[in-house]
Specification:
By secondary structure, the chain is mainly alpha-helical. The chain has two domains: 213 residues, Rossmann fold (3-Layer(aba) Sandwich), CATH 3.40.50.620; 81 residues, Tyrosyl-Transfer RNA Synthetase, CATH 1.10.240. 56% of the residues lie in helices and 7% in strands. It has 14 helices and five strands. Helix 10 packs antiparallel against helix 13. The longest helix is centred in the last third of the chain and has 30 residues. It is elongated and about 80 Å long. It binds tryptophan (TRP).
Length: 329
C-alpha cells in the first residue's frame, strides 16, 4: 500500500477553505492509504512564535483536525518535533542542497520580501526540512496545494541526489496527490479571490454563530441586478459558490432564479448562507471545544501515531546512514 503524508503548519485556525479544499479529502484518504499526518511545529519556528503560544497553536490545529474527522485509529497523527529522526535526516540532506537552488525558491523569495528583518537560515532550508518530513517515511504521495509543488520538486531532487551519490535506492520520489475533480476552491467574503489566512476574508471552523453571521452579512456585493439574466459580478458569484458548497441544490436554484428575475435581496441570501454555514460548522466547533479541553484524548490520539512514525523513521534513517557510510564501533 502506498504511503500518503502531509504536514500542517501550526499557525492560526482552520478556515472553510482548509476544510472543503483539503481536510475533507484527507479524511477520505484514510481508508485508501497508509497515512501520516503531522503538525509541522518546527517549520513554524522560522517566524519566531512566542513560547507562550507555541504549544497552544499545535493543540488548536490538532483538535481541529481531529474534530473534522482525522482518525487516530486509521492514520498516524503526530507532532514533527517528537520525531528526532527528521532532524537527523535534515542534517544529511542539507549537505546535498545547494544555496543557489534554495535561494531561487519562490516561497523563499516571498519571505525575503515580506520579512526582510528575519531572513534566517531555517527559512532558506525550509524545503530541506520538508523533504526530510516526507523522505523519512519514504512517502510517495503528498496531498498539497499548488503553492507547495516547488517544495515537492526539491524533495524529489534531494531524493535522487542522495540515491545517486551513495549508490542506493533508499528514497522513492514523492509526488503531489491531486484531488482532481474533488478539489473545491473556496472563495473569500471580500469579493476577491480565495479564502485565505492572511487575507482576513475567512470563516473559521471555531467561529461561533454570531461571528459567522456578522461576517457573512458584511460580505461584499454590488447594488443588485437591473436587467434579467445579467452577468454576476465576482463578489456575488463568490456568494453563490459558497452557497453551492454548504446549501441544498434547491436553495441555490431558488436564489439563482431570484437573481435572474432581478427580485433578489442580498440580505436574504446572506441570512440563508450564514444559517447553512452554521449548520455545517457548528457541530465541528462543538467537537473542537470538547477535544481541546480533553488532554487525555489528545495524548492518546498522538501516542499511537508517534510510535508508528518513530518506528518508520528509525528504519529509514538506519538505511540512509548505512548508505552514507556511518558505522558503529
Ligand atoms: N510546507 C507545508 C505548508 O506550508 C507544510 C509542510 C511541512 C508539509 N512539511 C510537509 C506538507 C511535508 C507536506 C509534506 O503547507
Amino acid at each position: 500500500m502506498e504511503t500518503v503524508l502531509s504536514g500542517i503548519r501550526s499557525t492560526g485556525h482552520l478556515h472553510l477553505g482548509n476544510y472543503y479544499g483539503a481536510l475533507r479529502n484527507f479524511v477520505k484518504l484514510q481508508d485508501e492509504y497508509k497515512c501520516f499526518f503531522f503538525i509541522a511545529d518546527l517549520h513554524s519556528l522560522t517566524t519566531h512564535p512566542h513560547p507562550d503560544d507555541f504549544h497552544s497553536s499545535v493543540k488548536i490545529i490538532l483538535s481541529e483536525y481531529l474534530a473534522a474527522g482525522l482518525d487516530p485509529e486509521k492514520s498516524a497523527l503526530f507532532v514533527q518535533s517528537d520525531i528526532p529522526e527528521i532532524c537527523e535526516l535534515y542534517v544529511l540532506l542539507n549537505m546535498l542542497a545547494y544555496k543557489g537552488e534554495l535561494e531561487r525558491t519562490t516561497s523563499f523569495k516571498d519571505k525575503v520580501r515580506k520579512q526582510a528583518d528575519n531572513v534566517n537560515a531555517g527559512l532558506l532550508t525550509y524545503p530541506v526540512l520538508m523533504a526530510s518530513d516526507i523522505l523519512i517515511h519514504r512517502a510517495t504521495k503528498v496531498p498539497v496545494g499548488k503553492d507547495q509543488e516547488q517544495h515537492l520538486e526539491i524533495a524529489r531532487v534531494l531524493a535522487r541526489r542522495f540515491n545517486n551519490l551513495y549508490g542506493t535506492e533508499v528514497f522513492p520520489e514523492p509526488h503531489a496527490l491531486s484531488f482532481g475533480k474533488d478539489l473545491i476552491k473556496v472563495p473569500g467574503l471580500d469579493g476577491s479571490g480565495k479564502m485565505g489566512k492572511s487575507e482576513g476574508n475567512g470563516i473559521y471552523l471555531n467561529d461561533d454563530q454570531q461571528t459567522i453571521t456578522k461576517k457573512v452579512m458584511k460580505a461584499v456585493t454590488d447594488a443588485g441586478p437591473t436587467k434579467p439574466n445579467s452577468e454576476m459580478p465576482d463578489s456575488v458569484k463568490n456568494l453563490f459558490t459558497l452557497l453551492s458548497i454548504v446549501s441544498e441544490p434547491s436553495t441555490v436554484e431558488y436564489f439563482r432564479e431570484k437573481y435572474n428575475d432581478c427580485s433578489i435581496r442580498y440580505g436574504d441570501l446572506k441570512k440563508q448562507l450564514a444559517a447553512d454555514i452554521c449548520k455545517q460548522t457548528l457541530p465541528i466547533k462543538e467537537r473542537i471545544d470538547a477535544i481541546y479541553n480533553d488532554d487525555e484524548y489528545l495524548r492518546k490520539a498522538v501516542r499511537r501515531g508517534t510510535e508508528q512514525a518513530r518506528e518508520s523513521a528509525a528504519a529509514t534513517l538506519a538505511l540512509a546512514k548505512k548508505a552514507v557510510g556511518f558505522k558503529v564501533f
